[in-house]
Amino acid sequence: MTRDTSSVHVPHFMTGDEWQVPTFALLRQDGSLHDGAEAPELTHDKALRIYRAMRFTRVLDERMLAAQRQGRLSFYLQSTGEEATVVGATAALQDDDMIMAQYREQGALAYRGFSIDEFMNQLFGNALDYGKGRQMPIHYGSAEYHYMTISSPLATQIPQAVGYAYGQKLDGEGRCTITFFGEGAASEGDFHAALNMASVHQVPVIFLCRNNGYAISTPVVEQFAADGIAPRAFGYRMHVIRVDGNDLLAVYQATLAARRLAVEENKPVLIEAMTYRLAAHSSSDDPSGYRSQKEEAAWREKDPLARMRHWLERQGWWDDDEERRLEEQLRDEMLAAMKRAERQPPPPLASLVSDVYDEVPAALAEQLAVLEAHVRRYPEEYPRGAAGLDAGAETAAGGQ
Amino acid sequence: MTRDTSSVHVPHFMTGDEWQVPTFALLRQDGSLHDGAEAPELTHDKALRIYRAMRFTRVLDERMLAAQRQGRLSFYLQSTGEEATVVGATAALQDDDMIMAQYREQGALAYRGFSIDEFMNQLFGNALDYGKGRQMPIHYGSAEYHYMTISSPLATQIPQAVGYAYGQKLDGEGRCTITFFGEGAASEGDFHAALNMASVHQVPVIFLCRNNGYAISTPVVEQFAADGIAPRAFGYRMHVIRVDGNDLLAVYQATLAARRLAVEENKPVLIEAMTYRLAAHSSSDDPSGYRSQKEEAAWREKDPLARMRHWLERQGWWDDDEERRLEEQLRDEMLAAMKRAERQPPPPLASLVSDVYDEVPAALAEQLAVLEAHVRRYPEEYPRGAAGLDAGAETAAGGQ
Amino acid sequence: MAHMNMLQAINQALDIAMDSDPRVICFGEDVGGFGGVFRATSHLQEKYGKARCFNTPLVEQGIVGFANGLAAQGHRAVAEIQFADYIYPAFDQIVNESAKFRYRSGNLFNVGGLTIRTPYGGGISGGHYHSQSPEAYFAHTPGLKVVVPRNPHQAKGLLLAAIRDPNPVLFFEPKRLYRASSGEVPEGDYQLPLGEAEVVKEGADITLVAWGAQLPVVEEAAELAERDGISSEVIDLRSILPWDRDCVAESVFKTGRLVISHEAPLTGGFAAEIAAAIQQRCFLYLESPIARVTGLDTPFPLTLEKEYLPDALKVLEAIRASVNF
Amino acid sequence: MAHMNMLQAINQALDIAMDSDPRVICFGEDVGGFGGVFRATSHLQEKYGKARCFNTPLVEQGIVGFANGLAAQGHRAVAEIQFADYIYPAFDQIVNESAKFRYRSGNLFNVGGLTIRTPYGGGISGGHYHSQSPEAYFAHTPGLKVVVPRNPHQAKGLLLAAIRDPNPVLFFEPKRLYRASSGEVPEGDYQLPLGEAEVVKEGADITLVAWGAQLPVVEEAAELAERDGISSEVIDLRSILPWDRDCVAESVFKTGRLVISHEAPLTGGFAAEIAAAIQQRCFLYLESPIARVTGLDTPFPLTLEKEYLPDALKVLEAIRASVNF
Ligand SMILES: Cc1ncc(C[n+]2csc(CCOP(=O)(O)OP(=O)(O)O)c2C)c(N)n1
Ligand SMILES: Cc1ncc(C[n+]2csc(CCOP(=O)(O)OP(=O)(O)O)c2C)c(N)n1
Ligand SMILES: [Mg+2]
Ligand SMILES: [Mg+2]
């Protein structure tokens, strides 16, 4: 409260309509730069790494939605339309900055190098899944790639990101945390708590809101009355920028600048990326019940992949041939990986009780023993449990 | 999202420092008006009703803190320094608008006519307490005066006020709800939820934040990084005004205008009243551990009662004699009421189990029967329970 | 009578409640135009308008806080929490506020008009955040009523009773049965009593107690046990709070044996309360220890969900162990 | 050894924890410069600086969310919730996040460094929002540890163990005993085991189980019963989750009788779990029903607090009833 607030003697209400938050954009849909815009420095290699991650994500989403439709997978969730937001922000970070995502950020993992097999093992919840088949498909996690395991309850990761980043600040190694979330999740109390704590404690954290227009069926006009999420930053005197979320270069540049503020000045930053969820919320959803095809078509015109590809082509870094080769290669690899993952056994029965604590408590070990005896008695009734029975002996003991 | 946000091509971060929320003030400490200020219309009668409520509150606080110090009361909590905020806002409402307060708003009840005996019965938790001796002192409630019973968990009343006001809007009788809370409580997730829901659903609710500088020992600079609470309204495109909370006329006028927006236009409003908690947080607290006497003294110079009294004197509506008579009268009445309240019996034993549900469930009636038998066996060990044993027979049955 | 599934029965109950009382208001995430992610509130906005059936922002603590206020004002607030797994952000509003509202005010104010509907339970490949059965948390909270229906007929009658009950009610809907359970349901307006259990099947040798989605499971176990010549009495508790001790005790006086089953983890689950109360009430009648067949003391898994769940075979084993004790 | 009260012992434990491990961080409402409303964190900010001991904004869900993240990052986060009655806004972060963090990630990540300290319980004229004993809610949550000390010596050793335990721990401090309980406490660094009960007094006729502030109560009841010639074995559970079934069962094998006491309401309280588990384990040894002496199934009252509380006389009556069954 260092501000010298002036005093007035006629009551006047403000609403925030007094000013507005503009949208930062660099690329036009045809891949050319807006007048006055300057592209960020981006090497050929990095640009291609980015584009490949975007394309990987798009192909993965197409393949896995199809697999879900065929009944091979119980559930899937696409990030289609939001690849520039997610990959652009990730590319602006150090590879060992922490990512705490919501669930639609597979592009971040793709960019960092999570392999097709790693994706598939999680999606099929098999014995090789790092999460041991405990969470629904798309709940990825990777210690190697500094990507916190996804948790379904919305917004819980946002204050956690503040705590994580506070720890990074204490460690003093110049790392930061980014947390992704939807404009719907930003309605949760946890979001408010996180912004407040980050600004009071000057924490190196980047809050990246994917404002994609919907929370399942709920459009933004029923989610909030304000002009988007950005103005919430003013409530905490936090740095904020709004960016065209379908513009890879703009997202990249904004996040680079945000990271500088976060890491060098311990200033948390809110980024609102304006984008659109082109697909259904998930494989369980059908958006035809709550939005028009016209609206979807208008946004399909703003496809972030096409926009980035056009820019790459203008740089002379990409062409149709390469595009076709990449798509084919990805499809083949994914098909093969999917088959490999499906052939893997389920996690062992003992994995039901490990990791609840660092070690399996006695009472829980007893519960497992009873269950094992039961499964042995009726192996045909519990084919998955029976399959993993012997494989899992050491797992139960080790807790790993 | 109807706003036409402009597009920019150079990344620029905003923080809210671009503009500021001024403080609306009318009265100088000497009771004169600021240059250019105009006093709201206020009849002689209403002005005195307001001042008497302020003085009542001040005297009540002094008396009851003393009673607590003497061991006659287990706990007390003063509103000293914040009387103008609470009484001024209440006076601007209709007497049957709903009030959902935090705990430091005894002035609102005093203004509406809650009697000294009603205060005392709650404070002593006796058989006449509407709350049946179930809550700590200062947890008043009154259906007659449209004052929701206080609940200790902070901020829970804020989204409740939105729901209450939504019901009033459905009823269409032109009533609204005001909710009071501290700047500390505004950190809770419930506050964020409430502002958002109120603005999305266009609810006739007034959010009145008493920004009194502290949440127990925590100063505002450790509570939030922004310039107060007011800028949070911008996150929801909500009408907001900041007001000098020690200036009765300004609070009154701001709240009048806010009520008009709420009731006539279904526009929720946030009012931030800048004030200071002159006393300790409560009788359990000692502020000398966390703030300076100098700071306290500076705020004592801004005493809202003195300021209002000076204004009244300038109107020729008040003088020293009347002040002395009022104080004496209040003291005498309070002393007498305190004695009456202390002489009342405790609530009957059966009140332990009534009102959990509309009727006492069988299992709970059994628990009471066991307890009654126990108390009868050891009456000297449970003097209060034994005292109320027979008085309470019908209470248990009726649930009232 | 009409044949329908549980979702249709719930939708009908809401429709009747709104039609018969203009003070009934339904809201929650996606419940407005879309009709809820399970479609339980389909067509209600169309029929009763946006003011009485609407989407809320995505904030459970706000939804229940708003509902508490709306109920205190005198409306009947029917709030949906999209999954029971997401009810915890509203825990404070429910446990500290809804449950204590009447008591703390000495009955000056109450939120009796509040009903919170939420789908619970496993068996739908939901992993640990679309499968939880959190009823025991709320059953430890005096001031609340907790109700769980087992089929469409029960769902409609209990939900209508819950909405009209003058106390705050948590209504847990077994989502596994939303479409899987169907049957004959009276067309009109009717209510089933809260706080009363129902003996679904009479039997002589052992008492089986369950609620909601676990009812078909214990019924199947009872059938399997029948082949061993064991006659089971099956009780649907229907209300967890208050729960019908008399009904369970009567049965155990007769059978001398008790198995309780729920999906929630064993430790601190509501079966513990039933076992504790019944061992006390029926001490001299018990011929074997009261057994609990429940989820493991772990979060809810995915790939091995079938192994985790307390299914009919596991209940059968417990019945056998009890009878052969 | 030094003579001190429980607050001093807790303050010492925090001091030792921070001194011996630079990764220990303490925070919460008013815990910074002021040292907490009960002064449990006195002088820690002075000694270890603002970065390691600080005030947070007033938002429990944020405090625990932040703590979860800080623990996941590798620090030892020691968060204070000012009163246990105010822990519910953090319920989601505790029950859905802290408790499931390791499991859901297959042990890639964990919040083992998390400890949440919070004062609980009645007897201080706190009414229903400064008196609650919510341990049973958390004891129904696999993945958490729940610990309650009974005196300064226990408090120091158990808190040091909790902070260093590689699992998230809820540490409930009996605020009624903060100053009322004092005794000899070892000066240095020591830990007491989590998950192990302690037989505080040996006896032959009946087993009394309690934890925290209820320990002195059952000890007093045991003394009173002694005058009737009844010899009680008194067990301090110390950890509610995981709890030491073996210790309680061993005792009941010997005594054949069990009384459990806690302040929380009866229905769904943790005594239910103990009763349910022990009636199963010790069925053939029980000579009378397991009894529970607890708070009523109501919110916590104020004026009639003494009548509400499960005091020594009520425990004594339960002991007599059990012995005379
Ligand atoms: C606490 C909580 N409440 C409700 C849900 C159910 N749910 C899952 S996704 C979703 C919508 C989220 O929308 P948004 O945050 O905008 O992200 P998007 O799906 O658009 O990427 C809802 C309501 C949940 N997972 N967690
Ligand atoms: C949910 C919750 N958390 C913590 C507390 C303990 N507490 C009581 S008052 C208070 C400070 C409130 O400060 P503020 O909102 O600024 O109001 P003021 O006391 O200044 O009027 C705290 C932390 C509480 N009552 N409820
Ligand atoms: Mg969205
Ligand atoms: Mg304050």
Search tags:
heterotetramer, A: 400 residues, alpha/beta, 6-stranded parallel β-sheet, two-stranded antiparallel sheet, 43% helix, C: 325 residues, Rossmann fold, 5-stranded mixed β-sheet, 13 helices, 37% helix, binds thiamine diphosphate, binds magnesium ion
Any overview of this molecule?
- The complex is a heterotetramer, with two copies of chain A (400 residues) and two copies of chain C (325 residues).
- In chain A, the strands form two sheets. A six-stranded parallel beta sheet of chain A has the order 2-8-9-5-4-3, sandwiched between helices. Chain A has a two-stranded antiparallel sheet with strand order 6-7.
- Chain A has two domains: 23-343, Thiamin diphosphate (ThDP)-binding fold, Pyr/PP domains (Rossmann fold), CATH 3.40.50; 349-396, no CATH class.
- Chain A contains 14 helices and nine strands.
- With 400 residues, chain A is α/β, with parallel strands linked by helices.
- The termini of chain C are far apart.
- In chain C, helix 3 (60-73) runs parallel beside helix 4 and helix 9 (214-227) crosses helix 13 (312-323).
- In chain C, strand 10 (206-210), helix 9 (214-227) and strand 11 form a beta-alpha-beta unit.
- Chain C is an alpha/beta fold and 325 residues long.
- The chains are: A alpha/beta (400), C alpha/beta (325).
- Chains A and B meet through strand 1, strand 2, helix 6, helix 7 and strand 8 of A and strand 1, strand 2, helix 6, helix 7 and strand 8 of B.
- One thiamine diphosphate sits between chains A (104, 152-154, 181-185, 210, 212, 214-216, 277, 281) and C (29, 58, 60, 82, 86, 89).
CATH architecture of the largest domain in chain A: 3-Layer(aba) Sandwich
- Overall 3D form of chain A: globular
Q: Given this structure, which CATH class of the largest domain in chain A is correct?
A: Alpha Beta
**CATH fold description of the largest domain in chain A:** Rossmann fold
Enumerate the spans of chain A where pLDDT stays under 50 for 5 or more consecutive residues: 392-400
* CA-based gyration radius of chain A: 23 Å
Q: Tell me the helix content of chain A.
A: 40-55%
Main-sheet strand order of chain C equals 3-2-4-5-7-6-12
Decide which structural class fits the backbone of chain A: alpha/beta
Write the element-wise H/E pattern of chain A from the N-terminal end onward: EEHHEHHHEHEEEHEHEHHHHHH
Number of domains of chain C: 2
Beta-strand segment tally of chain A: 9
Number of discrete domains of chain A: 2
Q: Helical segment tally of chain A? A: 14
Quaternary structure: heterotetramer
- How much of the sequence lies in strands of chain A comes to 5-15%
